[in-house]
Design goal:
This protein is mainly α. The protein has one domain (19-448). The chain has helices at residues 19-34, 37-50, 66-80, 93-113, 116-139, 143-170, 200-220, 224-240, 244-258, 266-283, 303-315, 317-320, 341-374, 379-398, 408-448, and strands at 56-59, 62-65, 186-187, 190-191. The strands form two sheets. The protein has a two-stranded antiparallel ribbon. Strand 1 and strand 2 (62-65) form a beta hairpin. Helix 4 runs antiparallel to helix 13 (341-374) and helix 9 (244-258) packs antiparallel against helix 14. The longest helix is centred in the last third of the chain and has 41 residues, at 408-448. The mean pLDDT is 90.
Length: 449
């Protein structure tokens, strides 16, 4: 049965804020506003990821999750120092696409319902998305910021892994004690640990998609202990949530890394994948996306639901392409549960929002591909860019089984910000080398003349 207020209008009617959370939030805000910019990522991310989504301040009927308050503090810091710390490469093409995507969702979702509550809800999503993205763009400016960010994410993975293992042992969620609800979800006899995240599958997705970044940090040689513990933590998070989506996303990151030896033949690989999918679609009894229903790596997965969600999404294209739709609950059993990021954006924001979201992904791969070709003679730089591509691929796979709606979305925004920094640095370094070579050549020619 479809839950009430699945779209908007739900949530706690009163403020739910544990005293420890209030102190942690206040401390984080002070540090965000007062620390040097390069150190702000630590308190900001620790507060964003380790304070549960259920901790909320209700004011005049508006819900401010703690992470929204942290985002507002980060935006205030950015505004105060935007002249001294502009985003790397200025306002780039990725920034424009993300901005258009966020506005598209806001406008189309509001038009779909034509209700003030829907508009308020979409404003909250807008703040989470655009505000969260630009906060991390401001905080991640160079390679040292990238390293620092990954170390913080590794720390978060370690903390969550310990707590998620404890959930397997005691059937109690330590973070749930903050709201007086320490219970953990159980399906088919398996405890699905969730740590500080809103649901188990986003917790596992955070760990799964973090793996390639931690592999790069370990290979970088400067932070082997924290990167190794982070890899262990990310693996524990991926496994203890008992979700096929997270296991597949984890494997996707590994597969992406394993393609490193044939990195110069990826065009052939991509076309080979396309040809394989087309061939399967022609010879299979069902559509090629029906392969999803056969994936069950934990013995308790909702594979058939994921397949039917995509199938109905395609078959009902005429209902959602313009302004999305709110009638998907009538498409079949539990079709209200949009556990697919692509489907979720299509149903809520129409075809335009979906296209813009896919454009963000496409731009990310294109930027990394161009930067990798530029950096071909710098193996360490090329490997860093390849690890970012593997991370992006892991997210793309995870999107087929989950919609990002809690803290995990900030890991996604952090990756986009890191890609912008990495692509800019690789291109700038190549341009500088060419200019230096031309200058040297000119000087030699002048001397010889």
């Amino acid at each position: 049965m479809e839950p009430e207020n699945i779209q908007f209008g739900g949530g706690s009617p009163v403020t739910v804020l544990h005293p420890l959370v209030a102190v942690a939030m206040a401390l984080a805000i002070v540090l965000i506003l007062c620390l040097p910019r390069k150190y702000v990522i630590a308190p900001a991310f620790l507060a964003l990821f380790l304070i549960p989504k259920g901790q909320v301040i209700v004011a005049a009927g508006l819900h401010f999750n703690v992470y929204r308050i942290i985002i507002l503090a980060g935006l205030a810091r950015w505004v105060a120092s935007r002249r001294s710390s502009p985003p790397t490469a200025g306002f780039n093409f990725m920034d424009w696409i993300v901005t258009f995507w966020a506005f598209s969702y806001l406008i189309i979702y509001s038009l779909q319902f034509m209700e003030i509550q829907a508009f308020i809800k979409s404003l909250g999503v807008f703040l989470d998305a655009l505000g969260g993205y630009f906060v991390v763009r401001f905080l991640i400016q160079d390679r040292e910021d990238v390293r620092r960010t990954i170390k913080v994410l590794a720390t978060i993975a370690i903390v969550n892994a310990v707590c998620m293992l404890n959930e397997q042992r005691t059937s109690e969620n330590i973070f749930g004690l903050l709201s007086g609800n320490p219970g953990v979800p159980v399906r088919d006899g398996k405890i699905r640990s969730q740590g500080s995240f809103a649901v188990f599958i986003t917790a596992g997705t955070f760990g799964a998609t973090l793996l390639p970044l931690l592999v790069w940090l370990w290979s970088d040689g400067k932070s082997k202990m924290i990167s190794f513990l982070g890899i262990v933590g990310a693996t524990v998070m991926s496994i203890t949530c008992f979700a096929s989506t997270t296991v597949i996303a984890y494997a996707a990151g590994i597969v992406g890394l394993c393609f490193w030896p044939i990195r110069k033949q990826m065009r052939l690989v991509r076309w080979g994948i396309v040809a394989t999918l087309v061939g399967l679609h022609l010879v299979m009894h069902g559509p090629v996306w029906s392969l999803i229903e056969h994936i069950d790596l934990t013995g308790s997965s909702s594979s058939y639901h994921r397949y039917m969600l995509i199938d109905n999404f395609i078959r009902h294209f005429g209902e959602w392409w313009l302004l999305g739709t709110r009638s998907n609950g009538s498409w079949g059993w539990e079709m209200w549960d949009t556990s697919n990021q692509y489907v979720a954006y299509g149903l809520s924001g129409g075809l335009l929002t979906l296209i813009l979201f896919i454009s963000i992904i496409s731009r990310g791969f294109a930027s990394l591909g161009t930067a990798r070709k530029v950096a071909e003679h710098n193996r360490r730089e090329e490997w860093f860019l390849w690890c970012l591509g593997a991370t992006l691929f892991s997210h793309v796979v995870a999107f087929f089984g989950i919609g990002y709606f809690d803290q995990v979305q900030f890991a996604w925004f952090a990756l986009l910000a890191i890609i912008s920094v990495a692509a800019f640095e690789a291109t700038s370094s190549a341009v500088a080398q060419v200019q230096e070579a031309l200058t040297s050549s000119y000087e030699v020619h002048a001397v010889s003349s």
